[in-house]
Specification:
This protein has 128 residues and is an alpha/beta fold. Helix content is 23%, strand content 30%. It is built from 3 helices and 6 strands; from the N terminus they run βββαβαβαβ. It has a 6-stranded mixed beta sheet with strand order 1-2-4-3-5-6. Strand 3, helix 1 and strand 4 form a beta-alpha-beta unit. Helix 2 packs across helix 3. The protein is globular. The N and C termini lie far apart (32 Å).
Amino acid sequence: MEMIGTPHETAVAETTVAWGELGDGPPLVLLHGLFDSHRTWRRVAHLLAPRYRVLMPDMPGNGCSGRPDAPYTLAWNAEVMSAWMLAIGVERAHICGHSYGGGVAQWMLLEQRDRIERLALVSAGGLG
C-alpha cells in the first residue's frame, strides 16, 4: 500500500506503527476507523497540510502497521497511539478521530488530557 505523504515506520509498544506525514505547523493526528488505514484521510490530508503537520498512523492491526498479539481495545489503542506520539517527538497535538478512531481519541482524552490540544470527532464510535 502506498503511504500518503512521507512514509515512516516507528517501533513502539511491541509492534510497529506505519504512518504518513504531510505539511508543516502544529501537529494534527488523524486516527482512522476500524478495519481501515490512514488512507481514509486521502481526500482531506492535502487540504490540511498547508496549516498543520498532518500525521496519519495506521493503527496496529491495520494498513501497513504490525499485527501484534494484543487486546485491540480502545484503551490499548489509545496507549499505543500516545506512545507513538512520544516516540516521534510529539508531546501535544490536535487529534481527529473517525469512527473507531474517534473512540480511541476520546479514550486518549480521558486518560491523557494534557497531550491533546483540541479534539475533533467524525462519526465517532467506540465508547457506547
